[in-house]
Amino acid sequence: MRRLSLNQKTTNSWSVAQAVDGCVRAGIESIGLWREPVHDAGVAKSAALVRDAGLRVSSLCRGGFITAIGGEERRRALDDNRRAIDEAAELGASCLVMVVGGLPEGDRDLPGARARVAGGIAELVPHALERGIQLALEPMHPLYCADRGVLSTLGQALDIAEQHPASAVGVVVDTFHVWWDPDVERQIARAAGRISSFQVCDWITPFPGDALLSRGMMGDGHIDFRRLRRLVEDAGYDGDIEVEIFNADVWAADPDGVVALMKQRYADHVL
Amino acid sequence: MRRLSLNQKTTNSWSVAQAVDGCVRAGIESIGLWREPVHDAGVAKSAALVRDAGLRVSSLCRGGFITAIGGEERRRALDDNRRAIDEAAELGASCLVMVVGGLPEGDRDLPGARARVAGGIAELVPHALERGIQLALEPMHPLYCADRGVLSTLGQALDIAEQHPASAVGVVVDTFHVWWDPDVERQIARAAGRISSFQVCDWITPFPGDALLSRGMMGDGHIDFRRLRRLVEDAGYDGDIEVEIFNADVWAADPDGVVALMKQRYADHVL
């Protein structure tokens, strides 16, 4: 239970201060932060809140969105990622989660977008190394390939990560994104030493109407969490296990109740 | 244009007779049939309709759903697939498309379900060989892994197909299901001699509310059809190109208008 981390998205209505208090009330020792609420509270203030509460910051979500074809848009995206790296360092986060972005408007060249991701990561690595922040490449469910993340498999994320020191570039293993992958066993083993973050939430059916809010509480869906937890542990990962749930019903519920349910389901389905 | 085939699902409101007439009116030489409307018309009657109209039957959809854990349910599923093979033979179809099925109710053992698919296919191969019908394994978008098809990649479908003669087991390359796959180039090349069917429709965003009706007309979404067509042709495939669209708006439109639009978009985006 000590490795359980509350990703702030799971209690989406809470500010940083509220989420920190909620973790303390529930005896949760780690939190995954998001940049927007961190900006609302102020980065220095957010850092002080988690530090004073004695919480670990298991991740900062999120950098990325680096598939723009060039010029000003690409430069702005890379600059914003350098700021995100700085924020992650100031917050004492273990890593910066990278959601790399989808196809640019009107563009259908998927191999091209993927090549630009590899190039963009290479451009960010020096700054990440300087600040001691690991860029955590998040392969996303192929459902999001067009509009959120052109990295679709762990193998593909590792192909990029392995071009850089493990201290600079790792990967996120998120059960929702990787559970279906027939190659997941081999790729998690390959990720040994590069697993930046292990995130859990469930794949539920029928598929909710909003693709961005389609994640379920552990136990409500089809994922065998213990199998995946054992695979990441066999690969040497002993860091925090973050619960990140985008779901309209979960967001509408009382956040303290969500945290209590999350602890129960974590014990029942993940541990 | 001679390779264009109308999959009956694209004009979902049409009976077999109406779809055959619609193809003839539009100068389309090939049709992909579905079992339910074929049963409504009668198998022999449907066979006569397509034969008398001089149409090719590019596929029969669909067999599959063979992930049941055992006993009576599994036996019934295999028997139904043998009937589907018989129907495909009677219709003169090039192949029987296999949608293998999702996880059984309450079951989370994905590797187990996948192993049962391999076993079920092996059981069906003798009957397929006897009737001269190729089982066309359809890898499905990982979106459907839980509830429709646990075969999620072309590579995985080929791992099963390659255990059998190519005349008995091939694969479907459906752009909607495979376009995101970072390994698609290598796997289509590997599929040379085993491509049973090439199906096209688009991946559209925002993702429609109903996951089963989320396919778009070519050109309305993000898929580079020409790239995928060239890959299947480089692998030696010169068969029909079927347009299969599950979409509420397409289904609500006048079917003759849908067929006309399909021809136009096929010329503009696929050829």
UniProtKB/TrEMBL annotation, chains A, B:
Xref: InterPro entries: IolE/XylAMocC-like (IPR050312), Xyl_isomerase-like_sf (IPR036237), Xyl_isomerase-like_TIM-brl (IPR013022)
Keyword set, alphabetical order: Isomerase
GO function terms (MF aspect): isomerase activity
Xref: Gene3D superfamilies: Divalent-metal-dependent TIM barrel enzymes
Domain Xylose isomerase-like TIM barrel: 23-253
Domain of life: Bacteria
Keyword presence, Nucleotide-binding: no
Protein name: Sugar phosphate isomerase/epimerase
Upper classification of the organism: Bacteria, Bacillati, Actinomycetota, Actinomycetes, Jiangellales
